[in-house]
Specification:
The chain is an alpha+beta fold. It has 14 helices and four strands.
Length: about 350
């Protein structure tokens, strides 16, 4: 019987050492509701006893109702116990003086989801307690009178616990607010925008631009800096005038090309007419010979034809000797020709006698 009692005592002492009796005493002294059997199972399942007891002690002292099973399940799912507990304690201290209507919905389940999504729940709570300020890069907008305005924005945001997991990030918020500012500035003249930047920012804030889908809620939008840039209207007018000039030049070149093509076509037709004339002239001797053979042309009629042709050749030679030499200026040639014919019509003007 003594051996049995000694064996049982040894087993109890061994289990107490295995179950970390010192931590159980510490937990019970801090009013943590946990049994020595649960601590043995905690050791068996690989749950860190020191971290779990410290977390339960912290929540108990803060007045937060969290059980050992919740912490153990979260750890076994791959979560971190300490960040979740720290976030809950920070949120409890920050929200306890707020009314139920204005208090955000942040409990153990929300903190555990944030931690399992590889985000820091403590940072999420701090971003709600102390809103973050996002500074945008330089953005440019064009006012109603086509004057460019260069601005920088400051956007104050606070954590949106309902959309913190899977919600759009800071970059998307900056992009959407910038789009709203650019669109709103286009409704006013640049002078009005320079005088009332707060009115533009408030109008963009009222639009809300699907902010409920973001991981952060916008607290305020402020235009930190605004200055006048280029006159976009003048530049656009200059580019439009240049485009019109190029179009007009293209049309003029098209008309010139058509005129050149028409000129070449007329020259080809003139050459064709000359060739037909030469062909017709080559038929004249043959026609004269045929007329002699058939008796339709007499010798006297033939000599009259020769005299008429000689007289025509003489007149052409006289006209060529009287006309001035051709120059490169066609207008001057036309003037000289007109003067010549006006002199020929003058009765006092006599042509030189024909050569004997």
């Amino acid at each position: 019987m003594l051996y049995v009692f000694i064996f049982i005592l040894i087993v109890i002492i061994a289990y107490a050492v295995y179950a970390r009796l010192d931590k159980w005493v510490e937990a019970r002294s801090n009013e943590v509701p946990i049994s020595i059997a649960q601590m043995g199972l905690m050791r068996f399942r690989g749950v860190p006893i020191d971290e779990t007891i410290a977390a339960l002690t912290k929540t108990t002292k803060a007045g937060i109702n969290i059980s050992y099973d919740q912490l153990e399940n979260h750890f076994l799912q791959g979560g971190r116990v300490t960040p979740v507990v720290n976030a809950l304690v920070t949120a409890h201290n920050a929200f306890k003086h707020m009314s139920p209507d204005s208090r955000p919905n942040f409990d153990f389940a929300t903190a555990a989801r944030i931690d399992l999504s590889h985000k820091d729940p403590v940072d999420a709570v701090r971003s709600w307690v102390t809103p973050r300020v996002l500074e945008s890069e330089t953005i440019t907008a064009v006012a109603k009178d086509r004057i460019q305005l260069i601005m920088q924005l400051r956007i104050t945001v606070r954590t949106n616990f309902d959309r913190y997991i899977g919600g759009t990030t800071e970059a998307t918020i900056l992009a959407r607010v910038s789009e709203g500012i650019i669109s709103t500035v286009g409704e006013y003249d640049h002078e009005y925008a320079l005088e009332h930047p707060n009115e533009i920012a408030d109008k963009v804030e009222e639009i809300e631009l699907d902010y409920d889908k973001a991981a952060y809620k916008i607290v305020s939008i402020d235009i930190d800096e605004i200055k006048v840039g280029k006159n976009i209207g003048v530049e656009l007018d200059m580019e439009r005038a240049l485009a019109d000039k190029v179009m007009a030049q293209a049309l003029a070149e098209q008309r010139r090309s058509m005129a050149v093509a028409y000129e070449q076509e007329m020259r080809a037709k003139a050459e064709e007419a000359k060739s037909k004339l030469l062909q017709a002239e080559s038929e004249i001797p043959r026609a004269i010979a045929e007329a002699f053979r058939t008796g339709k042309l007499s010798i006297m009629e033939y000599y009259q034809y020769k005299n008429l042709k000689a007289d025509t050749d003489m007149r052409e030679s006289v006209s060529k000797s009287v006309l001035p030499p051709a120059t490169g200026n066609k207008d001057q040639q036309n003037v000289n020709t007109a003067l010549l014919y006006s002199n020929l019509e003058d009765p006092k003007t006599q042509l030189p006698p024909p050569a004997q």
